[in-house]
Amino acid sequence: MEYTPRRIIAEAWSGTLERVIRSPSIWMCVGCYTCSLRCPRQIDLTDTVWPAMRDYALQEGTQPPSELRTAFQNLYLYGNVFGHSPRKRLEWTRGLEVTVRDLSKSPEPVEVLWLVGCYPSYHPRNQVVAREMARILTALGIRWGILGKEERALGDCDRLFGEEGLFEMLVESNRRLFERFQFEKIVLLDPHAFRALEKFYPRFGAVFPAEHYTTFLASRLEQLRPWLVKRINARVTYHDNCCVGRRCRCFDAPRKLLTAIPGIELVEMERNREHALCCGGGGGGMWLDAFITQHGGRRLSDVRVQHALKTGAEILAVSCPFELSRFEDAVKVAGAEDRLRVRDILELLAESMGLSEGGGP
Amino acid sequence: MSRRIAVPVEAYQGKITDLTRECLIAARLLAGDQDEVVAYMFGEIPAEGNSVLQLADRIITFEDGQVGQPVALAQAKLLCSKLDRAELDLVLVGSSSWGLDLGPLMAAYWGVPLVANCQWLERRENSLWATCRICAGKLMVDVEVEARPAVVLLLPGSFLRKEVAPRNRQPVIERETVARRNGTIGSVSSGGLSRSEKMWTSPRRRFWWP
Amino acid sequence: MNVLVTVRLVPDLVEPLVVSPQEDNLDWEETSLVLNESDDHALEEALLLKEKHRARITVTAFDFGEIDQVLYMAAAKGVDRIIKISWPHREPPNSLEIVETLARLVPALGIDLVLMGCQSPTEFLGMAAPQLAATLGWSYVGVVRGVEGSGRSEAWRAFKEYPGAILAEMEVRLPAVVGILTASQPPRYVPVSRIRAAAQQVQFETIEGPDELKEPPAAIRRVYLTPVTAHATMLRGSEEEVARQLVELLLEKGILK
Known about the structure:
The structure holds three protein chains of three kinds. By secondary structure, chain A is of the alpha/beta class.
């Protein structure tokens, strides 16, 4: 990366910020918040400087990498980055044995409005996690509902990409959408979406109580614990995602959930908690692996999997939809499929609760 | 009355395209033994083209180096001036980058029906019925064409596996010279002409799309 | 040089297609629409001509579906003039109706070059681009991948591919209609904020559409979804067995001879 945060500030001082705007560097930030955390002056580079540079570049006519263009256009047209039909948002519920309340068809008051997210809705690997979440919420007796085909992305990634206009458009339509329903809390699987809803939506007058699923379930641990009956005898290491972890300083809730599962031995990677190495999927990085590699970067998920392998863990536990596919790919690249599996915390909980096989306590 | 089915031949670097062969097969199946299939060749018949052109009853070649290049505008004007609409039943063109210019231009010049994206053709009484694939193949349309002649653009693969019984007579070959007037090809003048300035094979550009 | 670009909305193939109960058309009320991809490329090609040769671009569109968003996008990209053609009907215009209106408009606007997508997904009983050229008596070349100026004001170059990786450079004398398949570069992205700004600022000119509807010269007898006859087959076995199955398939399909 030609222009690190330090060099960017230096270029700004010397009045040559245009050089940074024209370089590929502005598209290589993965929004991990490490620079924001370490800045002694607490300049929020990730949430302000990088998006502002990208926005400026777009306004000046600089074309983003083609993969990002496609993601922007898909978000604009279909409300999801995949470009899939909104009508297919419910495909993950096919064959699910628990009741799914589609509030868009039958509005009713619920305790939890669960925003499923684009990846759990459409990506086959993540759809498994969505189904486990549905089972867990139902088992805990929580009255929950989803928005079905009316759900749209919350737009955090395009905000970080610099597409402020697209983000505002999504905020406006999501605010009108959420205001139609009665709920006590919004729960999300995606830490990026959680971040957008918690920090940035209120700036547009869209204030809704929101929690990431790890903190939501951790706060119900006493209710959850009796369900965790099946032992999972495995050494597990947890990857702290950047948004809920480093940015929101939430490190304990996921660990509490993991250690509540009987049989799990939790081990830590060399870089953990606020020092965790990003998986490389945020800030547009999810779609820019080829671009980043072309410009001399490396896939951070490949490096992170090496950290996990060094712990001797058999399971790499994650709590972000991006991380499942990124780390599973990295495990294959490392040739370590027989040594390390990647699983979302929800999958481990559901297995311990005996829900994955359709059973119960 | 014997009807005529015209098949403009598409050829590059001495080879007739497979799509033209499919058009000739389709023409032969429609024509049976009653109607006439005429292939129109721009330039000399390639040495390897004889087996393909056997499917035609007649082959008319237009001899002119310029016409031999695939400039659909000039060739459409030439065919419209040479072909007798009254005797013509159908013009079958392959849906290639050349055919997508030639066929619609001919239909537009004559003011006759055009049916594109055709993957099947058959006669039912006095009408021609075409089955077309549209919307990236997700939708099918059955179309009836009563007016004649009609111009039909055939999709690749439509008649690929169809077999036609070998014919025991050689097609008649006729040669026509093309009058050139002030650099304009054909007897139909126009306000402007597209002509091929350079042709080259460009393997380095084979995968040009990003 | 004055360039005209016509943009059309076509069925969005991401969404399931719905056929009308009479099976004679799509159910247009249930059909989501999106900008025709090759028209998007035609617009991009026009913008490149504006940048390189100071061409003046006019964009036209029939008022069907949410065409306004497309026109605002075109405005945000920097076109000079936008003309919306009134169209108070439930189905989009066919190629005859498009050509009739454009044939009237083109001479009135003093257009030298018309860029249109060479085909649209629902265009099969007539193709607007070559039809327009024939009606105007202009030159036509279609399925083109880019237009360049040659330095002479009346002659331009269009690039067209033929089978066998043959690339032809065609000289096109203006006035001409060029059917664009793809532009010289991918259609540029314009930020949503600029589209929204254009929606606040830009006013469209409007003109009347064709006086009467035109029936296509062939009759549509039935419209139906393509039947699904086969699904994917997983090829299993050792590498040699899978390779053998692949070769057999390629021979059977006539791809290998």
